[in-house]
Amino acid sequence: MLDLTRGQFVKHVVTHPFEGFEDLRWKKAGSMRIAIFIVFMLFFQQVAYSRLYGFQYYSDYDKVFNIVPYIFKSFIIFGTWVVANWAMCTLFDGEGTMKNIFINSAYALIPYIAGYLIGTVMSHFLIKDEYVFIQSIEIIGTCWTFVLLISGIKAVHQFSFGKTIALMLLTIVAMIAILFLLVLLLTLFQQVIIFILSIYTELSYRFRV
Amino acid sequence: MSGLKKLTSLISAAAISISVLAVNTSALETYDPYSYDRWGDPVASQAGYTAEKYVDGNTIGCGALNEPADLFISHDNLMYIADKGNNRIVITDLDFNFKREMKEFTYSDSMVTEVTVDADALSYMAEEEEPLAAGDYVLTYDKSTSKYNILTTAGADTKFDVEAKYVKINGTIAAAGGDRIAVTYDGAALTVTGKLTATLAKPTGVYVDQYTGYVYICDTENDRVIKCDTEGNIDRLFGKPTDALYDQALTYNPSKVLVDKAGNVYVVVKSQTKGAVMFNSQGDFLGFYGANRVEQTAEVLANAFWDLISTEKQRERSAKQTPVGFSNFDIDDDGFIFTVTDSQEVNTDLVKKLNPRGDNILDSLGATDMTFGDMPPTYYSIYSKNSSLNDIDLGPNGELNILDFQHGRIFQYDKECWLLFIVGGKGNQLGLFESAVAIESYDNHLYVLDSIKDNITIFTRTVFGEIVTNAANLYNDGLYEESLEPWQNVLKYDGNYRRAYIGIGNALYNKYEYEEAMEYFEISISRDRYNRAFEGYRDIWLKENYMKCIVVIVILVILSFVYKHFRKNGKIVYPWERKRRKRGV
To answer: Beta strands of B414-544 (E only): which ranges?
Structure first.
């Protein structure tokens, strides 16, 4: 049974929302490389969504391209999710390791990424009146990802359904806390750097020959 | 180190000179003409109007103007200037040849039937140490002391002052400051010998009704609007309404006035936030017209919430949310009234087009979310302030000329509220303003009144302005294809002019040249139009390539069957599957 390669397991997991992740855990067939690839695809999807979407629907302010928001929307949010989930679930007897959480969460993102990429491609062929087709694909992808995420977190930690939902909400709270602290840290470091720079400037003025 | 410094200074000098060259698109103008792109960022543009000259009171020949407040061009091509500081209305023709001035107004006989002075007051006069000698006098009301003065006609020095309550005109005590009447005193009684005349006190608004020819003047400090003929014979006065609807605690200082086709009179009163005070032609108070809405801020929402849960008494005590009253208006030939609101704090209802019911019909044009005046700065800047729009004028083609007091700029929009030109600025040179208070337009001229420089600047449309106006008029009349060439001409002058791309795109769209139209709509970033052009383009493409599409689909279906077949039989194995299988995962 289930004599699949790691690559084939991805398809199995995505198409079997309820037992896929259990099988993955049982077979230990999660691949970190594929997971990282998926996160990079998430980043690409975010960029594509705002830059390559059909002109008749939507286009961003195109005078400047700032990559930071896209990095935030993909890598940072995802990374924070993994860390926060690991931190919270370990406290509540979750069995998942950071690596497994990473893999399961990344696999769960596939329908979302696929839905939006398909939507992006379709937006070049459809007019505004037909937006409902694109929208439905995007919504289905998002919902599917949501189901997979619940299933994935449930499997990786061996939680009950209720506990999974509760801990996912807690994870979001923890994510907000982590991001807040990160911003705080960044600001403080900025202050320190400005302080050092101003001392340097002061000294360089005083010791000018 | 010094070598590096030299190099950097050289580079920066070069950069500055290049940027100076680049910025000065129009050497004639004293300001940098600009326009806005799709994102609301300012881009350099061509000047649509050029400042030709200015005229002041001395060139007109009426003596220096003093703090003029309003400008109006009547239907018979006369310019009325409300010379506020000199308490007069100056009338010139459009070449600024002085015609006459209106300083003194005469009440008609039907308005003033009798002027009586109380017997008590007369006996008091007779009992004085130096009793009033018999002779001719002038009776005049002094608003500051609330007393009537009896002046000698010759030297006009005050002989007596009488409490206002002792003097009655038409049986009532009220009178406005500056009203004068010639009287004769025979030692026992005062008899009226002349007509009651009125003078103005700080007039700030003037309007001429094109249907009846009557002149309406906001006699601001005398709390009234005077309706008179061009000779100054008063027909009617529109004073503070005594109706319960009008809060008597509020002052009534009319600042602007206009009249519609039916003869209804609309008066802007600065202290009123409920809209313009509206009278019918008989002078009866009808109500308020066209109030602005309250801007939806967090505070307003919070107050709405507290109102929900507070008691009646608490609600009475809480502060009321009042909108900002509009400050100026103009009426077009169809009877629509355009208002502007002079406020830097709010953004709601800054410019409105009101139908006779008082509803803003710019809503239906989809212009409520449009920004009039300068766009709010995207990035923080200490120099940028919000516009304060203090006058509006309707041009011959329905253009809106909106004056921005804050920046001294004129924003011209066409009748669909598309920005055409931005003209002027703040400063001392010709074409710039210290305190721009009123704007009027005639043909291809704009006239702007400055109340600090005490002069009127005359702008004339440039060649570029003519081309744009022509193109916009054709476009607004629905003649898209005819407007193609003018718009292409516009682009020759100014490649940043977004409206031209839309115009060309629409013309091409109407000619079924969808692909080119899409290109222009994409440059101008107008998605809805692009969408329509794309729909047409796709239809044509599908019709032309119908057979090809079918063939491709059939081939794809066949290929997928073949692929599935070989996959099943293990004929196709991907390299990564091979590797893993060997490892035996």
So the answer is: 419-424, 436-442, 445-450, 455-461
